[in-house]
Amino acid sequence: MNLESLYQEIILDHYKHPRGRELLAAPLGAAHHVNPTCGDELTVQVAVDSDGRLMIGYEGQGCSISQASASVMSELVTGLAPGQSEVIRQAFLDMMRAKGTGEPDEDVLGDAVAFAGVAKFPARVKCALLAWMALQDAEIQSGLLTQQSKDGDS
Amino acid sequence: MGAPSMSIDVARIKKDFPILGRTVRGGRELVYLDSGATSQKPYQVLDAERSFYETSNASVHRGAHALAEEATIHYEDARELIAAFIGAAPSNIVFTKNATEALNLCAYAFSNATALARQGAPGRAIDPRFVLSPGDSIVISEMEHHANLVPWQELCAKTGASLRWFSVDDDGRLDLSNIDALIDETTKVVSVVHQSNILGTINPVREIMARAHAVGAVGIVDGCQSVPHMPVDIADIGADLFMWSGHKMLGPTGIGCLYGTTEILDAMPPFLTGGSMIEMVHLEASTFAPVPQKFEAGTPMVAQAVGLAAAVRYLTDLGMPNVAEHELALADYTIKALTSIPGVRIIGPGSAVDRGSAISFVVDGLHPHDVGQVLDNEGVAVRVGHHCAWPTCRRFGVPATTRISPYIYNDESDIDKAAAGIVAAQEFFGVAK
Ligand SMILES: Cc1ncc(COP(=O)(O)O)c(C=O)c1O
């Protein structure tokens, strides 16, 4: 286990240069999540554009893993049809629960495969998941996602 | 590496702590700098607990057999030794699960008394000092551990009393300039921390308790971070109630202590009820045992008390003045080591005066979690986060801090390793100055 396996280049890059890190003018739904053990905070907002595609806004403070994860997530799900984000979120959750075993699907997860190494550090898994959990709550709040799908995954 | 302290022989002490001989993260020597969270345990404590189970284990204060008698003697001898450690009599010490439970025991004395008074419970002597109503106030500080904050918030919610607090200045000291306005005739409880677990500040609790008593309030001091690290004479502090946890002073988990004056403990209604804490039980109602048993419902933590007594013996042999001196020297060394790294800022008193050795800091451009991760990779164990003192973090405008908290088994070389790790973190993340 070394630092580089946790802090992949992609993660450090997203941490230092976050993509799309701003709030939306007219969000349909938003969620503010905190990681009470370390004080990481994140607000994630969702809306849809005129074509019905997902738009993401976010803002927060926290460690490199939590903030980079939010940046990667926003890139991945922006422009998707609502509901599609759930597929990626589920794949991300599976990867985080795999404790570093198994092959994450790069076709589904894109840059987010860089977080595979985080799964080997149990104390950091929550940091990586923060953005994805907030996204799900924001989507439920906006009506883009039903509560049922949330209950289903735990 | 600086000269080792005269009286505390760290190299010899380290040998008493088996865990300090292990390696972490692929063979790195463990450097344990998280004793503010919990301390490690010497053989003497482990052996005492084991030997109790091997030779004398039985339920205390009941049964007429030889083991029950021996176990009771061990338990009560432990109480005597632990009480003497802070200059108290054994009947003034109640064993609890930890300091958090002791603080809840205190807060519940107020909510239970208030509920009993509302109900007009016949035959129950209810001390008006514990009955709260809207208009009453509870005074804490901005540097409290959540354990000395949340129970009082809950008490306010249940009774209509309001919460007030001392603020903290930029150097991490309590602002006492408004003490007479803050603690006034409406004040029923004043509860403050002796030594802050996040800032390291040692507070002038004697002065604060004196003001609490001047207005007739119950005075409480959280001694979690003072009892393990400095000589404490309870008479000197003047608190009505005072508590700490065994696990932060070389003792086992699962045992904490509540000190109370006889007069206050007698006046407080019980917290947990059931077996062991009663005098007479009828189906309609019961009466309660004298203190401390009144507050020790159920089968108590006997082996843990025996272990904690061994910890007290260990610390007494070292001499608490020596422990305090060692830690002050380490605090001074740590402050200098940290402030010599560009981009590192200490959150808390910036000098080794009226402060303990727990030192929180932030690194420009780095989140504490990431600092802690790099340190961990070097084998250095520190705490990161808000240290159960979230409002204190907010006061300093930081989401979290990294905290170095050494103890008797640490020396300057451990601090050097932590400092080197911080520089390594800055380099890894490209924020070195
Ligand atoms: C100042 C202070 N108060 C209260 C507590 C709570 O102690 P425990 O978790 O052992 O109940 C702690 C320990 O974290 C502390 O440092």
TrEMBL record, chain A:
A Pfam family it matches: NifU_N
Residue span, NIF system FeS cluster assembly NifU N-terminal domain: 7-127
GO MF annotation terms: iron ion binding; iron-sulfur cluster binding
UniProt GO BP: iron-sulfur cluster assembly
Name used for this protein in its record: Unannotated protein
Originating organism: freshwater metagenome
TrEMBL record, chain B:
Names of the cofactor(s): pyridoxal 5'-phosphate
Keywords assigned: Pyridoxal phosphate, Transferase
Signal peptide, first to last residue: none
A Pfam family annotated for this UniProt entry: Aminotran_5
Entry-linked Gene3D superfamilies: Aspartate Aminotransferase, domain 1, Type I PLP-dependent aspartate aminotransferase-like (Major domain)
GO molecular-function terms, A-Z: cysteine desulfurase activity; pyridoxal phosphate binding
Top EC category: transferase
Keyword presence, Secreted: no
Gene Ontology terms describing biological process: cysteine metabolic process
Boundaries of every Aminotransferase class V domain copy: 31-417
Catalytic activity: (sulfur carrier)-H + L-cysteine = (sulfur carrier)-SH + L-alanine
EC number(s) stated in the UniProt entry for this protein: 2.8.1.7
Name of the featured protein: cysteine desulfurase
Protein source organism: freshwater metagenome
